[in-house]
């Protein structure tokens, strides 16, 4: 009631979050032909070129997705925090049955960057991704996440948030 009445500010805005956070959007944003057909200027298409190719998994295309799974990550449409995200070369047939029903996207595998850090005096490699936290079109914070394993996590020794210099 407070949100509907304008008595509180909620971020992210629930309407915008519902509209923009679906991974279904990545199927369009990673499709150069569709972006060109929509008349998106070349400069904007170039900015989007780094998004790994993403397709919607449906019962109709699930056999083809299974055949190419080793080069893919599978992510739920409305998931967050790496929940129910599967690296294709690790997915079991049981998990695949769930993915094949739909509600997932298949995203081309993008090799994560790596950095060497020191743990207990010894060098240790960690995968890395960079996140930009924004509000109203402005970057508020840049942070890196260091991790090991298939997806980002906060359980890795020496992992977690790291500064971006």
Question: Would you give an account of this structure?
Answer:
With 165 residues, the chain is α+β, with helices and mostly antiparallel strands. The protein has two domains: 14-108, no CATH class; 113-163, no CATH class. 24% of the residues lie in helices and 31% in strands. It has helices at 14-20, 24-29, 32-37, 42-48, 62-67, 93-100; strands at residues 54-57, 72-76, 86-87, 104-108, 113-119, 122-135, 138-147, 160-163. The strands form two sheets. The protein has a four-stranded antiparallel sheet. Strands 5-6-7-8 form a four-stranded antiparallel sheet, with no helix packed on it. A hairpin with a 2-residue loop joins β5 and β6. The termini are far apart.
Summarize the topology.
Elements: H1 14-20, H2 24-29, H3 32-37, H4 42-48, E1 54-57, H5 62-67, E2 72-76, E3 86-87, H6 93-100, E4 104-108, E5 113-119, E6 122-135, E7 138-147, E8 160-163
Antiparallel strand pairs: 1-4, 2-3, 2-4, 5-6, 6-7, 7-8
Quickly count the helices. Answer: 6
The tally of domains stands at 2
Spans of at least 5 consecutive residues with low confidence = none
- Per DSSP E runs of 2 or more residues, the count of β-strands stands at 8
List keywords for this structure.
8 strands, 165 residues
Task: Characterize this entry briefly.
With about 160 residues, the chain is an alpha+beta fold. The protein has 6 helices and 8 strands; from the N terminus they run ααααβαββαβββββ. The protein folds into 2 domains: about 15-110, no CATH class; about 115-165, no CATH class.
């Amino acid at each position: 009631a407070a949100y509907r009445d304008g008595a509180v500010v909620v971020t992210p805005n629930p309407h915008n979050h519902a509209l923009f956070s679906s991974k279904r959007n990545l199927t369009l944003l990673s499709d150069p032909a569709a972006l060109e057909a929509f008349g998106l200027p070349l400069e904007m298409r170039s900015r989007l070129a780094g998004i790994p190719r993403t397709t919607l998994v449906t019962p109709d295309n699930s056999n083809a997705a299974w055949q190419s799974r080793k080069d893919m990550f599978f992510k739920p449409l409305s998931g967050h925090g790496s929940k129910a995200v599967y690296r294709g070369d690790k997915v079991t047939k049981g998990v695949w049955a769930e993915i094949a029903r739909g509600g997932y996207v298949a995203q081309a595998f993008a090799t994560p960057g790596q950095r060497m850090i020191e743990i207990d005096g010894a060098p240790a490699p960690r995968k890395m991704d960079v996140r930009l936290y924004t509000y109203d079109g402005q970057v508020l914070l840049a942070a890196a996440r260091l991790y090991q394993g298939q997806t980002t996590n906060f359980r890795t020794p020496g992992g977690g948030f790291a500064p971006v210099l």
